[in-house]
Specification:
By secondary structure, the protein is an alpha+beta fold. 35% of the residues lie in helices and 21% in strands. Helix 1 packs antiparallel against helix 14, helix 4 crosses helix 14 and helix 12 crosses helix 14. The structure holds ligand BES and manganese (II) ion (2 copies). One manganese (II) ion (MN) binds next to helix 4.
Length: 457
């Protein structure tokens, strides 16, 4: 059994894979901060080397103007009759500034069966799980792969993939395939693998309030004229219910989703732990929806920043102007145009005398809803069952991934398999991000099986 041997090899050589991953995690490839651009380049170079070593002779770092690099590579040796898969991952990281870590975020450390480092699960562990699966196939099968494989590794996902479409236009061959495996997602638990079928969108908008032509004494004029800070908070409050949840644009999820949302083990304990709730705090009430429905299928709002006076800027005055940047997660199937209309409606009749303006950020992410059907997904089921003992659960993700909608639009007739190595304990984008070693091992072995299963569809 070639596959079983390969999966066995992957498990036996797991420590080597871990060392490979640790090496990558020491490079702070943070894409939103130009001070780290050389590290993004450096990591891209390492990846080219790694892919060349693994038989991807054409591996290269490509770089468009005003963009961070993309790494592409292919091994078409399975032949023209064989299936071709694209494996997508991102090697850029979120920043760590201002976060309180228990260990150096760029010095990976294993504690209690988890690997702690920025990017461990989002997303370095994701694509390294494929490098390891390739190693296993090479070592046990006369160096032959059962399918043609292309790697596309991006260095700009964490800034919203602003140049991915340009790369697709410039290097169309790198994206030509029968099946896309997009490895940047989450599993419901360390025991239950996930197949992601919906993503929330991301829409950023700033609300600005102009209340006066200049600040005035709050004792002389308080209650006589509007205060921009008060007006801003009143407007934001119009978007929220009494639990602090977004109340504009609520969706009615289909019945089939309601059952699915109840299947995931998103209980109070997982929520309390994963969402960093205060000790003894109650989780938000269900208010008629399962927690996963709130997370996957409803819009949500957070304040990214405001111009409200900060400590040290106190003065007893009505303020003339105030604004806030809001980040809104769009429900799957919801568009930014729809959300814009809800906001405009909610902000009609602002507090008297206040002029309100909305400014949208152009970038963001479309939401995504998918129905996994056909032989590729039957192959996924079989591969996961062989390793995890169960088929993957179809899950939604509360986060957003701009590249997925781009792939969905461009390759609408191809199966898009969204998997990954995150779990509810991962804490992506926060302090002490980590990846479960057992999830990582199972992901590698499932990849080994998946290539085999896909070769026979
Ligand atoms: N891998 C994440 C998305 C994700 C988060 C998947 C949680 C599964 C669970 C991705 O790297 C990400 O962080 N996306 C950003 C998009 C933004 C940078 C445009 C997000 O969701 O904030
Ligand atoms: Mn990611
Ligand atoms: Mn991320």
């Amino acid at each position: 059994m070639i596959v079983a041997n390969a999966a066995d090899y992957a498990t036996k050589h797991f420590d080597e894979t871990l060392e490979l991953l640790k090496g990558y995690l020491q490079i702070p490839a943070i894409s939103c901060d130009e001070r780290y651009f050389p590290d993004v380049e450096k990591l891209a170079n390492h990846l080219v080397d790694a892919l060349k070593q693994r038989g991807f002779a054409d591996a290269q770092k490509v770089c468009l103007e005003r963009a961070l690099p993309l790494v592409i590579a292919s091994d078409m040796s399975a032949g023209p009759e064989a299936k071709t898969i694209v494996i997508y991952g991102h090697f850029d990281l979120q920043p760590v500034e201002g976060e309180d870590w228990d260990s150096d975020p760029h010095e990976p450390e294993v504690r209690n069966g988890r690997l702690y480092a920025r990017g461990s699960a989002d997303d370095m562990g994701g694509w390294v799980s494929h490098l390891a699966a390739i190693d296993a196939w090479r070592a046990t099968n006369d160096a032959k792969l059962p399918v043609n494989v292309k790697f596309v590794l991006e260095g700009e996902e964490e800034i919203g993939s602003p140049n991915l479409e340009r790369y697709m236009d410039e290097y169309p061959d790198a994206f030509e395939a029968d099946v896309m495996i997009l490895t940047d997602c989450e599993n419901p638990s360390e025991e239950i693998p996930g197949l992601t079928v919906s993503l929330r969108g991301l829409y950023e908008v700033s609300v600005s309030c102009k209340a006066l032509s200049g600040d005035v004494h709050s004792g002389l004029w308080g209650n006589m004229g509007p205060d921009a800070g008060n007006a801003l908070t009143l407007l934001i409050a119009r978007c929220l219910d009494e639990n602090g949840r977004m109340k504009l644009g609520r969706m009615e999820p289909p019945e089939s989703w309601r059952a699915r949302a109840r299947e995931v083990p998103l209980n109070d304990e997982v929520i309390r732990d994963g969402a960093n709730l205060l000790k003894d705090a109650k989780v938000l009430p269900e208010s008629g929806l399962a927690p996963a429905e709130w997370l996957w299928r409803q819009p949500a709002l957070t304040i990214l920043s405001t111009t409200l006076p900060r400590p040290g800027q106190e003065k007893n005055a009505l303020r003339a102007e105030a604004s806030a940047k809001l980040s809104i997660r769009l429900a799957p199937g919801q568009t930014r145009e729809e959300m814009r209309a809800y906001l405009n409606e909610a902000f009609q009749n602002p507090p008297p005398g206040v002029v309100v303006e909305l400014h949208e950020k152009e970038s963001g992410a479309e939401s995504w809803l998918y129905e996994p059907k056909g032989p590729a997904f039957e192959a996924v089921d079989r591969a996961y069952e062989a390793v995890w003992g169960i088929k993957p659960l179809e899950v939604g993700i509360g986060g957003s991934i701009p590249f997925v909608a781009i792939f969905g639009r461009r390759f609408s007739d191809l199966p898009l398999i969204l998997n990954g190595v995150m779990d509810p304990k991962t804490g992506a984008h926060g302090p002490n991000e980590s990846m479960s070693l057992e999830v990582f091992r199972k992901a590698i072995c499932a990849n080994v099986h998946l290539y085999d299963e896909l070769s026979r569809i």
